[in-house]
């Protein structure tokens, strides 16, 4: 079996999904191979001769090797301007390489002219014509050699993001032509979202033999005639840990699937009816202890949608010996300053907080289950404990008005000394959210696989007005602008912990 992670995703850390599958396959005695084609493909494009006609691109090519070394060095967090130039240079090279294939490529995104990742016809066209994909000259010889050497019966592609879909289907199409009898499977977050749609009717029969929703361990083992045994920890030993672009090895680990809260209105987790499956804290501690010993990470990235209070308590009681970060809800136990101090002593270096709004009525309408007074207390506690915060704000939700958006601005400015990083986004309506039935819906972008819909805002607070407010008022506020300037470009929250205190 060969498991593949297609381009393009930020190449800052190894793919946790593949590592989890690898652990289950290894425990069951299944022979397998992991291919991070995202990492390999990006390196391939960066190292190929580049059509540089302007001064910037020529300079970026000349500085390429130095920039790659710099982004992987421990010194890259000492100068955000130098770091930003390195990222910008590498993105410049990828943009030039992508232009030859009518694509826009960066270290974190992929778009191909004339093709949409939410149109099944376009994905099938990409599969029929894989040679039109800019990564073709990388994956054609690579996959050909792997099939010749490994002779797999099953190939699985892990597609988690829209930015991976076109490349993933191009690879699937190439594999199907190369080996018609090969069993091709697809799984990952994006596939799960598609399969959860009430109107999904598989248009990929003949190309993809099996599409897997949710955790894929049992489905893959079933294909191999094996049963899943409990207790398999993720395995990263098959992945090139030293090659990822981070100033230190990042170990990603998921202690649950689904969300421990799962009540937020319009949340994709709720719309997809994803069941919450937590791993017992004792098992988490055991897994992480073994993985830390095996991989010697500089940072642990906990991938849970929200770290549960039980898990936070376990992390506070059993320090990992390595800095770590993840998503948490701005509620108890973080309203307790002593608990935040315990988290810091355990290695917590940053927490991501989904605050969404600085207006209590909006939060209540979204069923966030958080109070603004508690949010302010949590921000203060974390700052005093020495834990950085990466706060997420969401504008244009159905309950928000322009006045409410301005209250969010005031809340942000008032608490700006306590906020280290900000993510500011415009709300996208999940296509199958139950709460969407109360709204007048229209297409967000056309496509039979589209995950989001546009809507007529109940208060007239339409997307264009929201964007105008964000660009002309919110982001231009001096306090907000100062926070936004601290965000590492392209890699954002994945690299932000390295810049804490820099």
Strand content is 5-15%
Assembly level: single chain
Beta-strand segment tally: 18
| Fold-level CATH name of the largest domain | pyruvate-formate lyase- activating enzyme
The residue ranges in which pLDDT falls below 50 over 5 or more consecutive positions are none
Q: Mean pLDDT score, rounded? A: 94
Strand order of the largest sheet: 8-11-12-13-14-15
Number of domains: 2
Q: What is the second-level CATH architecture of the largest domain? A: Alpha-Beta Horseshoe
CATH top level assignment of the largest domain: Alpha Beta
Task: Tell me about the largest β-sheet.
Answer: 6 strands, parallel
How would you describe this structure to a colleague?
The protein has 502 residues and is an alpha/beta fold. It has 2 domains: 2-51 and 100-223, no CATH class; 248-499, pyruvate-formate lyase- activating enzyme (Alpha-Beta Horseshoe). The protein has helices at residues 16-27, 37-47, 55-62, 64-71, 80-99, 120-128, 136-150, 162-178, 189-196, 217-223, 268-271, 281-295, 309-317, 337-346, 360-365, 372-385, 402-414, 463-474, 478-484, and strands spanning 2-4, 33-35, 103-105, 110-112, 154-158, 183-187, 210-211, 250-253, 256-257, 277-278, 299-302, 324-328, 348-356, 388-395, 421-426, 429-430, 440-443, 452-456. Strands 8-11-12-13-14-15 form a 6-stranded parallel beta sheet. A 5-stranded parallel beta sheet has the order 2-1-5-6-7, sandwiched between helices. Helix 3 (55-62) crosses helix 5 (80-99). The longest helix has 20 residues, at 80-99. The protein is globular and about 60 Å long. The relative contact order is 0.11. The mean pLDDT is 94.
């Amino acid at each position: 079996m060969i498991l593949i992670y297609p381009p393009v995703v930020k190449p800052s850390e190894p793919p946790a999904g593949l590592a989890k599958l690898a652990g289950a396959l290894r425990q069951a005695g299944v022979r397998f191979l992991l291919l991070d084609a995202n990492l390999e493909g990006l390196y391939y494009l960066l190292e190929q001769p580049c059509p540089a006609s302007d001064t910037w691109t020529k300079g970026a090519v000349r500085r390429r090797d130095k920039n790659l070394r710099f982004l992987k060095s421990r010194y890259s967090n000492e100068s955000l301007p130098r770091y930003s130039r390195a990222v910008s240079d590498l993105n410049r090279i990828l943009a030039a390489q992508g232009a030859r294939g009518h694509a826009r490529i960066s270290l974190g995104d992929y778009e191909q002219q004339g093709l949409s990742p939410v149109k099944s016809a376009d994905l099938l066209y990409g599969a029929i014509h894989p040679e039109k994909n800019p990564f073709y000259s990388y994956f054609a010889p690579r996959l050909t050699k792997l099939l010749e050497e490994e002779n797999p019966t099953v190939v699985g592609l892990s597609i988690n993001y829209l930015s991976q879909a076109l490349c993933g289907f191009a690879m699937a199409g190439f594999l199907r032509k190369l080996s018609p009898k090969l069993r091709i499977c697809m799984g990952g977050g994006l596939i799960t979202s598609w399969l959860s749609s009430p109107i999904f009717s598989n248009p990929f029969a003949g190309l993809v033999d099996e599409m897997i929703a949710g955790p894929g361990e049992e489905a893959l083992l079933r294909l191999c005639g094996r049963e899943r045994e409990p207790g398999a920890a993720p395995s990263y030993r098959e992945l090139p840990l030293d090659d990822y672009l981070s100033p230190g090895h990042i170990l990603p680990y998921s202690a649950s699937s689904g969300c421990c809260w799962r009540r937020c209105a319009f949340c994709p987790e709720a719309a997809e009816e994803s069941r919450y499956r937590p791993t017992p804290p004792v098992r988490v501690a055991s897994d992480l202890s073994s993985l830390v010993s095996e991989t010697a990470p500089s940072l642990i990235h906990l991938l849970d949608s929200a770290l549960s209070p039980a898990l936070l308590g376990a992390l506070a009681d059993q320090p990992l010996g390595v800095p770590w970060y993840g998503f948490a809800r701005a509620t108890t136990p973080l309203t307790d300053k002593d608990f935040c101090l315990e988290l810091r002593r355990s290695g917590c270096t940053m927490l991501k907080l989904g605050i969404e709004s600085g207006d209590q009525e909006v939060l209540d309408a979204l069923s966030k289950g958080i109070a603004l007074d508690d949010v302010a207390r949590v921000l203060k506690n974390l700052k005093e404990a020495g834990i950085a915060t990466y706060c997420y704000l969401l504008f244009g939700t159905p309950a928000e008005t322009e006045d409410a958006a301005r209250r969010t601005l005031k809340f942000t400015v008032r608490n700006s000394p306590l906020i280290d990083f900000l993510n500011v986004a415009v709300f996208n309506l999940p296509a199958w959210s139950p709460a969407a039935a109360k709204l007048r819906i229209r297409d967000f972008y056309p496509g039979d696989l589209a995950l989001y819909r546009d809507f007529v805002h109940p208060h007239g607070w339409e997307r264009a007005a929201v964007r105008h407010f964000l660009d002309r008022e919110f982001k231009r506020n001096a306090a907000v602008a100062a926070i936004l300037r601290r965000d590492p470009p392209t890699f954002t929250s994945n690299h932000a912990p390295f810049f804490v205190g820099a």
